[in-house]
Design a protein that fits this description.
The structure holds 2 protein chains of 2 kinds.
Chain A: H1 13-21, E1 26-29, E2 35-36, E3 52-55, E4 59-68, E5 81-87, E6 92-97, E7 110-117, E8 124-130
Parallel strand pairs in A: 6-8
Antiparallel strand pairs in A: 1-2, 1-3, 4-5, 4-7, 5-6, 7-8
Chain B: E1 4-11, H1 22-37, E2 47-50, H2 54-58, H3 63-71, E3 77-80, H4 86-99, E4 105-112, H5 118-127, H6 142-157, H7 161-175, H8 189-194, E5 197-200, E6 202-203, E7 213-221, H9 222-227, E8 234-243, H10 258-271, E9 280-282, H11 288-297, H12 328-332, H13 336-352, E10 366-373, E11 378-386
Parallel strand pairs in B: 2-3, 2-4, 9-10
Antiparallel strand pairs in B: 1-7, 1-8, 4-7, 5-6, 8-11, 10-11
Classes of the chains: A mainly beta, B alpha/beta.
The structure holds zinc ion.
Residues 30, 32, 34, 43, 45-46, 48 of chain A line the site of zinc ion.
Chain lengths: 131, 388
């Protein structure tokens, strides 16, 4: 995005996207092994405040997915696109499946993280590419 | 715990009226509720109002006092926002206040203006009920989120799109006699199966429409109803609320609604009833799959079996436990902030014998209203019973 340098970022979230682009995506873990995604100061499960950043596993498995034909305006040019919930082990996350025809997406498919770009807005999007 | 009488109910028609402001919609619903109740406006001690997207659709925040004014009520007013469960939450708060003895008469309800946004705009506005950073920015829409749950359900328990189509057919059928419903038109299973996809596996007929509308209730204490000789045979006897992690991916189960289970268990215990006592229910079928998840969460169907309830006739108008005799969100419409209180209005009228579909449930004494927000990170459940 041309004016990305001027845009106000979302601390914690954009930092995570930066890390993911560098192949260093992470999740947070509390002393009781509860896991979560940033930005977060407190473990949502137990309230612990000493959260450690640990490396997100390289690949995950699609738990469920949908192919969206009626998007919000921010994804008008992207539709139809596949959105999936992916289990990376310690955490799951939601992203857009890229690098594969939407008809070929299936539950159980192994994918890896790849920060993609919305065709509509040029904004960064969490992408998931078949591993 | 004392019960709370539903002294009056009022609904606008739900549907397509893009030019009407939410203050106008709520005014109409409140006039109907006051007329139905026989309670004078000056006895109202507070307004509890649900609304979700007023900032986006009307550039209007701070809607509480605006709605008290629109209803002609001089009393403190608060807006409640819990996405699609906004007025369910407002009802729960009002019930709690009356039971605690703090108030005797409250005006409760909600309104939403949506169709002025158009399909794309309303889709964008509805999406903000999800986690903006981790879901919406990945392209998750409201139908998309329920589609993720629907596929997870099929994978875990079986079932297919045709089972969901039977839910849409049932709810359209129920709405035929409801003059307030957005759709008073019968559909066939084939219509639903052949409709364009919205977010696969869900198609156009799996989704509730985009709607404008308002709902209002006049709630009173038992003692106020008795002293003023109100004709208010139905009471809210149980209330419950549940919560869950905001993002679907942070939940252990993708095809269950623990927040609704928690709310239902609390409401049943509060009323001293069990699922087996429930004669009818209005559940939050924003999408056909949502009705399945609601039935299972409320223990009206075993886990994994709710998918066949409509197809096999257990939840149809003449089935064991009729579900969404109003037409549900699917056919009655879903003006988001109005929905929760409108479900209370429908259950009240069904139990009181004042609903066009009351004949199907002539002996019913116990009804349930289930209202859900987002992918059920918020849920309220209310039990209503005939008292006299
Ligand atoms: Zn923890």
């Amino acid at each position: 995005m041309s004016d990305a340098d001027d845009a106000v970022t979302d601390a914690g979230f954009d930092d995570w996207l930066d890390a993911a682009e560098d192949g260093a995506a992470y999740y947070l873990e509390c002393p009781d092994d509860h896991t979560a995604l940033p930005p977060r100061r407190v473990c949502p499960d137990c309230g612990a405040t000493d959260l450690e950043e640990l490396a997100l596993p390289d690949t995950g498995e699609i738990r469920t997915f949908t192919v969206t034909h009626v998007p919000t305006p921010a994804f008008e040019e992207d539709a139809p696109y596949a959105t999936a919930v992916v289990d990376f082990g310690p955490v799951s996350l939601t992203g857009q499946v890229v690098g594969i025809d939407v008809e070929d997406v299936e539950t159980g498919l192994e994918v890896e993280l790849e920060i993609a770009t919305s065709e509509t807005t040029g904004e960064r999007v969490i992408g998931l590419r078949p591993a | 715990m004392s019960d709370v009488r539903v002294a009056g109910t009022g609904l606008t028609p739900f549907g397509n009226s893009p030019e009407r402001t939410s203050r106008d919609l709520f005014a109409e619903a409140s006039i109907a509720a006051f007329e139905d109740s026989g309670v004078p406006r000056e006895d109202v001690e507070g307004v509890f109002y649900g609304n979700f997207m007023g900032e986006l659709s009307e550039h209007q925040g701070h809607q509480g006092p605006l709605m008290a004014e629109a209803a002609g009520v001089q009393a403190p007013a608060t807006r409640y926002e819990s996405a699609c469960a906004s007025s369910g939450t407002a009802v729960r708060e009002a019930v709690t206040r009356i039971r605690n003895g703090e108030n005797d008469v409250l005006l409760v309800g909600g309104a939403e203006r949506m169709t002025n946004l158009g399909t794309a705009g309303a889709t964008e506005a509805l999406a903000i009920a999800a986690d903006d950073l981790w879901e919406v920015r990945a392209g998750v829409t409201f139908p998309g989120a329920y589609a993720l749950m629907a596929r997870a359900y099929f994978d875990e328990f079986g079932g297919e799109h045709e089972d969901l189509a039977h839910i849409a057919v049932k709810n359209h059928e129920n709405a035929l006699s409801n003059e307030k419903a957005q759709y008073q038109s019968a559909i066939e299973v084939s219509d639903a199966l052949e409709a364009p996809p919205v977010s696969e596996p869900l198609g156009l007929y799996d989704a509730c429409p985009i709607s404008d509308g308002a709902s209002a209730l006049v709630l009173t204490s038992e003692s106020y109803a008795a002293e003023h000789d109100l004709e208010a045979p139905v009471a809210i006897t149980g209330t419950g609320q549940g919560g869950d992690r905001m993002a679907l991916h942070d939940r252990e189960y993708l095809a269950r609604s623990p927040a609704a289970r928690e709310a239902g268990a609390e409401a049943y215990a509060d009323a001293g009833v069990s699922a087996g006592d429930v004669d009818l229910a209005e559940v939050h079928d924003c999408f056909t799959i949502a009705e399945v998840l609601a039935l299972e969460a409320l223990d009206l169907e075993p886990i994994g079996e709710g998918i066949s309830a409509a197809r096999d006739g257990r939840t149809t108008a003449d089935g064991e436990t009729p579900i969404n005799l109003s037409g549900g969100l699917k056919a009655k419409g879903h003006p988001v902030g109005a929905t929760g209180a409108s479900q209370i209005a429908e259950v009240t009228d069904l139990l009181a014998g004042e609903h066009p579909n009351s004949d199907h449930v002539a002996d019913a004494t116990t009804g349930v209203a289930h209202n859900a927000g987002g992918t059920v990170a918020s849920a309220t459940v209310h039990v209503l019973e005939v008292m006299e």
